[in-house]
Amino acid sequence: VQLQASGGGLVQVGGSLSVSCAASGGTFSNYVMGWFRQAPGKEREFVAGISRGGGSTDYADSAKGRFTIFRDNAKNTVYLQMHGLRPEDTAVYYCAADRFLRNTRSYASEYEYWGQGTLVTVSS
User: Fold this and answer.
1) Which residues of 6-45 are buried (b: 16+ CB within 10 A; e: fewer)?
2) CA angle, 96 as apex, 95 and 102 as ends, to 5°?
3) H or E stretch at 113
4) Are 41 and 24 in contact (CB under 8 A)?
5) Which of 29, 32, 100, 118 suits a disulfide with 8, CB 3.0-4.6 Å?
6) Which residues contact 113 (CB under 8 A, 6 or more apart)?
7) How far, in Å, are 9, 34, 37, 66, 120 from residue 53 at the CA level?
8) 73 secondary structure, DSSP code
9) Using the 8-state DSSP alphabet, how is residue 43 labeled?
């Protein structure tokens, strides 16, 4: 499956932004989807994950209450809606997919497919 992330940009502290990830080349509903991010000089970290049908989600502590992951299997797209953005949310955001994962909270190494990333910059 191929993943194409989009929607990143520059936003002020406290603002909102949504990023999306369109999948092609596979049966989208077969894949657990995740969002990860990587800030300069830091390791890639889990942000949110969603089950194949969308009924189960999981979030990093830093994202709970501010970010929402959801998917539209008819459109082969997963979204990450972000509110209350902080400077520490500045990173390249990556979507990831895996057909065999059982958990919606997984390490980056467990995902097989990755999008190219989209940059989110939160300015103060």
Assistant:
1) ebbeebeeeeebebbbbbeeeebeebbbbbbbeeeeeebe
2) 135
3) strand 113-114
4) no
5) 118
6) 1, 2, 3, 31, 96, 97, 98
7) 29, 13, 23, 22, 27
8) T
9) -
E-strand stretches of 30-102? 32-38, 45-50, 57-59, 67-72, 77-82, 91-98
Are the C-beta atoms of 95 and 35 separated by less than 8 Å?
yes
Quote the tokens at residue 111. 């995902």
**Which amino acid does the sequence have at 41?**
G
How far is 25 from 69, CA to CA, in rounded Å? 22
User: In this predicted model, what pLDDT tens digit does every residue of 9-54 receive, in sequence order?
Assistant: 999 999 999 999 999 999 999 999 999 999 999 999 999 999 999 9
> Which residues 6+ apart lie within 8 Å of 65 measured at CB?
none
For the segment 50-103, what is each residue's pLDDT rounded down to a tens digit?
A: 999 999 999 999 999 999 999 999 999 999 999 999 999 999 999 999 999 988
